[in-house]
UniProtKB/TrEMBL annotation:
<dbReference type="InterPro" id="IPR057868">
    <property type="entry name" value="HMG-CoA"/>
</dbReference>
<feature type="domain" description="Hydroxymethylglutaryl-CoA reductase-like">
    <location>
        <begin position="9"/>
        <end position="123"/>
    </location>
</feature>
<dbReference type="InterPro" id="IPR023074">
    <property type="entry name" value="HMG_CoA_Rdtase_cat_sf"/>
</dbReference>
<dbReference type="Pfam" id="PF25653">
    <property type="entry name" value="HMG-CoA_red_N"/>
</dbReference>
<dbReference type="InterPro" id="IPR002202">
    <property type="entry name" value="HMG_CoA_Rdtase"/>
</dbReference>
<dbReference type="InterPro" id="IPR009029">
    <property type="entry name" value="HMG_CoA_Rdtase_sub-bd_dom_sf"/>
</dbReference>
<protein>
    <recommendedName>
        <fullName>hydroxymethylglutaryl-CoA reductase (NADPH)</fullName>
        <ecNumber>1.1.1.34</ecNumber>
    </recommendedName>
</protein>
<dbReference type="GO" id="GO:0008299">
    <property type="term" value="P:isoprenoid biosynthetic process"/>
</dbReference>
<dbReference type="InterPro" id="IPR009023">
    <property type="entry name" value="HMG_CoA_Rdtase_NAD(P)-bd_sf"/>
</dbReference>
<keyword id="KW-0560">Oxidoreductase</keyword>
<dbReference type="GO" id="GO:0004420">
    <property type="term" value="F:hydroxymethylglutaryl-CoA reductase (NADPH) activity"/>
</dbReference>
<dbReference type="Pfam" id="PF00368">
    <property type="entry name" value="HMG-CoA_red"/>
</dbReference>
<dbReference type="GO" id="GO:0015936">
    <property type="term" value="P:coenzyme A metabolic process"/>
</dbReference>
<comment type="similarity">
    <text>Belongs to the HMG-CoA reductase family.</text>
</comment>
<keyword id="KW-0521">NADP</keyword>
<dbReference type="InterPro" id="IPR004554">
    <property type="entry name" value="HMG_CoA_Rdtase_eu_arc"/>
</dbReference>
């Protein structure tokens, strides 16, 4: 299934601010933000109404690959432009004056056909940057390029660096993960556990890697894990799975936005294949519509396999919105933005607590009265009452979590296993609940409504990060829910440990004993 890019979306191909004069004439860049395509023909470029023919155009595809546009037109196969790659157009023409100019690019691409990108850009004299970080256009991950940056950092700061220069992997493996690579930050990793997990995907005992510089953190989680194990382990269940992108469509008035929302609901079965045309993995589950004034916010909800999926769903939603822009015949759409801030990417939000972002997972356990008293020096009644008091504190403070510190365990596991650590902002939300059972034991559960994790893509394939995922048995297809269950179990262990420490007044003394550099 091939989506049709609308003129509004085609404008996004152009790289704003790329227009500049060169010794030979004028240059600008376009970047493929749609799908992998094959450029089959370059027709012309029109600058301020002046047509520049293909004979006066050359394309720079990066890596020193510069070719006259006529060579592409002469070869019926054209050239492939992957998603994310830029092409710089070099035009043999008179230089442009400072100020605003119109740029129109006419070309053909398989499978889209004839396309026209038309935008405005400006020529401006910008001050020269005083200091510039060294980089290599040929190979920015080569040893020479890395040493140049290390030397630059030492000269700029007036310091000598010993440790950040030493690492055990090929820097080329970092392409797509880190730009201007200069060195590493070595973070201590401690082991907790093994944790016994009774999940639908994670079953058995798991060593838990925790990357942290906070004293007592590993010891505290290990204490909670031991308590869970003595009571039969932790039961974990993934109860929801959705990753979002939330575009906004702007109309002249509220009625236009309302009618558009109804149309989207009616056309979901035609929108779905357009969204799914960009990926073998992303599957559109449903679209939520939220209206405010003349704005229609669409919240696209996808499943994304073993990937966290933010980029994946961005491409899929881009394709769906392109089809929408082409096919909606109601009130005119005045503006469109692929992300409206309604997906709340990298931000805690109430909508994620209510509607799920990433994995919605629950960890629960029944803690025996005698074991709790022997190991933690508290009773079930003490912990349950402490939880009630804490609920009031969380409520009046507006916190997104009524527990103690789920972000500690999540962050430590994220760093160790190559997750996007900024996702802790959403993943740290939690709903802690406890009650006394008829037998006098403590039932406790932690619901994590927006746990964003991956076992494929991002940093999960890097050297040490992949090794820690292998330690957990979370490498390979179909392992992301297993990983989510393990993380949830660790979070519950941490809640038990810190909650008991505060209730029994062991919290300060523990930090005094383990957490201070002496």
């Amino acid at each position: 299934m091939i989506f049709t890019p609308s003129p509004m979306l085609l404008k996004l191909l152009y790289t704003r601010g790329s227009l500049h004069n060169t010794p030979e004439g004028v240059a600008f860049s376009i970047k493929n933000r749609l799908d992998t395509v094959r450029i089959t023909r370059v027709e012309a470029v029109v600058l301020d109404g002046k047509r520049i023919g293909v004979e006066e155009i050359a394309l720079d595809l990066g890596g020193g690959d510069v070719r006259p546009a006529t060579t592409f037109n002469a070869d019926a196969t054209g050239f492939t432009l992957p998603v994310g790659q830029s092409a710089t157009f070099h035009l043999h023409t008179d230089p442009l004056k400072e100020g605003l100019h119109t740029v129109q690019v006419q070309f053909s691409a398989d499978p889209f056909g004839d396309l026209t990108v038309e935008v405005e850009d400006s020529i401006a004299n910008l001050p020269t940057q005083g200091h510039k970080i060294p980089r290599s256009d040929a190979d920015d991950y080569a040893d020479e390029a890395i040493r140049a940056r290390q030397q630059f950092a030492e000269e700029f700061s007036g310091q000598q660096f010993q440790h950040l220069k030493h690492y055990s992997f090929d820097a080329h493996d970092l392409q797509g993960n880190c730009e201007h690579f200069t060195g590493v930050a070595q973070i201590p990793v401690g082991l907790a556990g093994p944790l016994h997990v009774n999940g639908e995907h994670a079953q058995g005992d798991f060593l838990i890697p925790l990357a942290t510089t906070e004293g007592t953190l590993v010891a505290s989680y290990n204490r909670g894990i031991q308590l869970l194990n003595l009571c039969g382990g932790v039961k974990c269940t993934v109860i929801g799975d959705a990753m979002q992108r939330a575009p906004v469509f702007v109309f002249d008035d509220a009625r236009g936005a309302r009618d558009f929302g109804r149309w989207v609901e009616e056309e979901i079965e035609r929108i779905r294949p357009e969204a799914e045309s960009t990926s073998r993995v992303a599957k559109l589950q449903y679209i939520d519509t939220y209206l405010a004034g003349k704005f229609a916010y669409l919240r696209f909800n996808f499943s994304t396999g073993d990937a966290a999926g933010q980029n994946m769903v961005g491409r899929a939603t881009f394709a769906a919105c392109s089809w929408i822009l082409e096919n909606y015949k109601g009130a005119p759409i005045r503006h469109f933005y692929l992300e409206s801030n309604f997906a709340t990417d990298k931000k805690a939000s109430q909508i994620n607590v209510m509607r799920t972002r990433g994995k919605r997972v629950v960890a629960e356990a029944v803690i025996k009265r005698d074991i709790l008293q022997q190991r933690m020096r508290v009773t079930p009644e003490q912990l349950a009452y402490h939880g009630q008091v804490s609920n009031v504190g969380a409520f009046i403070s507006g916190a997104n979590n009524n527990g103690a510190h789920s972000a500690n365990g999540i962050t430590a596991m994220f760093i160790a296993t190559g997750q996007d650590v900024a996702n802790v902002s959403e993943s740290s939300a939690g709903v802690l609940y406890s009650e006394i059972t008829p037998e006098g034991d403590l039932y406790i559960s932690m619901t994590i409504p927006s746990l964003i994790v991956a076992t494929h893509g991002g940093g999960t394939g890097l050297a040490t990060q992949n090794e820690f995922l292998r330690m957990l048995g979370c490498v390979g297809r179909g392992t992301v829910n297993k990983f989510a269950e393990i993380v949830a179990g660790v979070v519950l262990a941490g809640e038990l440990s810190l909650g008991a420490a505060i209730s029994s007044s062991d919290w300060v003394s523990s930090h005094e004993q383990y957490g201070r550099n002496r």
